[in-house]
Amino acid sequence: MSRVFVAGHKGMVGSAIVRQLQAQSGVDIVVCDRSELDLLDTRQVADFFQNEQIDTVYLAAAKVGGIAANNDYPADFIYQNLMIECNVINGAHQADINHLLFLGSSCIYPKFAEQPIRENSLLTGILEATNEPYAVAKIAGIKLCESYNRQFGRNYRSVMPTNLYGENDNFHPHNSHVIPALMRRFHEAKQAGAEAVTVWGSGKPKREFLHVDDMAAASVYVMNLPDPVFQQQTEPMLSHLNVGTGEDCSIAELARTMAAVVGFTGEVRFDTSKPDGTPRKLLDVSKLHQLGWHHRIPLEPGLRRTYDWFLANQATYRA
């Protein structure tokens, strides 16, 4: 029986990884609430690893938030994420745990990276200013894993997901990302009998979206790859892997699909006075495809699954 610790098990990604692991035999899943284990406390984390005999770690814990939160609390975002990464990665090493997967973010890449974004775009240009502290912390997490691998022979790997959505997402009306934000707005418009929903921008920018259950499946897949296979597509200091669909859609296409999923029959309008943001953001996932993994959940079925969860959890979702 392999003891697997999932850090951040209550978050969208961590909870999906727990579901994925629960479907496997021979896995003893270990989770801890923040009241039981404060990942910002170096001593608590070190003692936890020394006492729990963990074999594998999935590091999905992080301080996350939207543009407003990143802009208002940059010190919190860089400090807390760096501390979580340092405590968990070094604590795992000190306890002689050889297998760890660090979950990052596509925001690690330069603001003007060539599309689709390849892994070797890392550290080739300036970052998006609004979330630079968070991105720097995630880059540090990649380099922590690579450095422990080089110096101590560990097997610490990193995966960088595209835009995620799904069960346990954050549906806050002001602080959520585009899919949960649109889902809630179309749902509330349907409930109110509104004639139209207005979406910010022209609708022309293109984005890539991955269901969180696919992300969890990819994470477990990458973690379980034999070393010789994993090393075919990575280098010691360029070891992270993009995780996505390799497909994108316009915001206009997303909005109209969302309206159909929710059952909103009014007009979808676009406010072209609002900013569009980056014209396109798509990850190159050819390395992951060559390693044998492809996503399985198309966007519309994934949105329907998410909306079903939203409807069943309206009393408890984060809002």
Summarize this entry quickly:
With 319 residues, the chain is an alpha/beta fold.
Mind sketching the topology for me?
Layout: E1 2-7, H1 12-22, E2 27-30, H2 42-52, E3 56-59, H3 67-72, H4 74-94, E4 99-103, H5 132-152, E5 155-161, E6 163-165, H6 178-192, E7 196-200, E8 206-207, E9 209-211, H7 212-223, H8 227-230, E10 241-243, E11 249-250, H9 251-262, E12 267-271, E13 280-281, H10 286-290, H11 299-312
Parallel strand pairs: 1-2, 1-3, 3-4, 4-5, 5-10, 6-9, 7-12, 8-13
Antiparallel strand pairs: 8-11
Q: Can you tell me about this structure?
A:
It is a single chain. The protein is an alpha/beta fold and 319 residues long. 41% of the residues lie in helices and 16% in strands. It has helices at 12-22, 42-52, 67-72, 74-94, 132-152, 178-192, 212-223, 227-230, 251-262, 286-290, 299-312, and strands spanning 2-7, 27-30, 56-59, 99-103, 155-161, 163-165, 196-200, 206-207, 209-211, 241-243, 249-250, 267-271, 280-281. The strands form 4 sheets. A 6-stranded parallel β-sheet has the order 2-1-3-4-5-10, sandwiched between helices. A 3-stranded mixed β-sheet has the order 11-8-13. A two-stranded parallel ribbon has the order 6-9. Helix 5 (132-152) links the parallel strand 4 and strand 5 (155-161). It is globular and about 60 Å long. The two termini are 38 Å apart. 40% of the residues are buried. The mean pLDDT is 95.
